[in-house]
Amino acid sequence: MRSAPTLSVVVPIYNEEAVLPSFAERLRPVLDGLGESYEVVAVDDGSRDATPLMLTAMRRSWPQLRVIRLSRNCGHQGALTAGLHRAYGEYVASIDADLQDPPEALASMLRLAQAESLDIVYGVRTDRTTDTVFKRWTAGAYYRLMRRVVGRNVPSQAGDFRLLSRATVDVLRQLPENRPVYRLLVPWTGLPSGEITYVREKRAAGESKYPLSKMIRLALDSITGFTASPLRLATWLGLAGMLVCVLLAVFTIITYLNDSAVHGWASSILITVFLGAVQLLCLGLLGEYVARIYVSAQGRPNYFVGYDSAAETGIDDRPATPVIVPHQADPDRMAPTL
Questions:
Q1: Do residues 57 and 24 lie in contact, with contact meaning Cβ atoms separated by under 8 Å?
Q2: Buried b (16+ CB within 10 A) or exposed e, 218-235
Q3: Which residue windows are transmembrane per the record (predicted)?
């Protein structure tokens, strides 16, 4: 049996055949030069391109590379959860494969955590000029909102590029989150933390796997998962709507008594549209929370592991929840045919 490594690097991957070779060429020298034992936990999130075949080929010459294949596409946070739950390292880092976050910073993260006995080291972006203006604006708005919702302990411009101690990972594993948002859950733990800064680079190749729709979904999950304020907002909007109705009723009575009422359609349309919008907004906010209750009541795991190459290395697998392992399939058989 092989002992657990000092560092595990979790890499969620989905259809990254264009960038995967460049990512491996930059990541491996950094990890080999640490002077510490390590594993790279590549979580294939149901890729449909040549990514599974490329990972299988890389494993033949890179013994520290471990491949976990999810049986279906579970999303970035689901793949990240699978990697965190099944990593063995004393420290666990997470990084995307698009090379926007530099692998070279992993060494600084590990050294900082070891030197100062930190449980969390965040990678904080100091320059996002490679992103579009719209992406920078929406990202800035998201972090400002999250700091108001969760607290000032949420680092500004810190995504999913971070390093966690084993104690932190164990805490996260115990949380009953159905839709975890780690960029908020990790600072919520309040464990000792530090930061390293870096300049965000352009995506090395391929296309972004985080379009506007997923950004909106992340924002909704972040808000509804950490605060009930939107429900209170619905209450305040309802009160505001009632106040407007009372004021309009008073105005109508006064004009009627003065015999100067000119009945038009504009005021009727405006009040109808206003009340309808408030009602729909309130129903939408309530629906988001009811949906979370519904999903939580179902109790379905947010990822399904179809294959884990750790079974071939002689390491005893940690019990991971949630996880369903129907069989340890042959990786070549699970890979798509080119």
A1: no
A2: bbebbbbbbeeebeeebe
A3: 233-257, 269-291
Q: How many helices (H) and strands (E) does the chain have?
A: 11, 8
Q: Report the pLDDT averaged over residues 254-260.
A: 67
Contact (CB, 8 A) for 8 and 39: yes
Q: Is 207 exposed, middle or buried (0-12, 13-18, 19+ CB in 10 A)?
A: exposed
- Cα 150 from Cα 147, distance rounded (Å): 5
Distance CA 229, CA 15 (A): 37
* Tokens 């890179």, located at residue: 62
d(C-alpha 23, C-alpha 228), whole Å: 40
Task: Give the closest residue to 245 by CA, choosing from 211, 268, 217, 265.
Answer: 268
Give CA–CA dist 328/68, Å, rounded. Answer: 11
User: CA-CA distance, 274 to 279, in Å (whole number)?
Assistant: 9
CA torsion angle 20 26 29 34 (round to 10): -110
Tokens of 56: 């299988």
Query: What's the CA gap between 241 and 248, in Å, rounded?
Result: 11
Global pTM reads 0.69
CA pair distance 180, 302, nearest whole angstrom: 9
> Rounded to whole angstroms, what are the CA distances from 20 to 23, 35, 98?
5, 24, 8
Give the C-alpha separation, 291 to 288, whole Å: 5
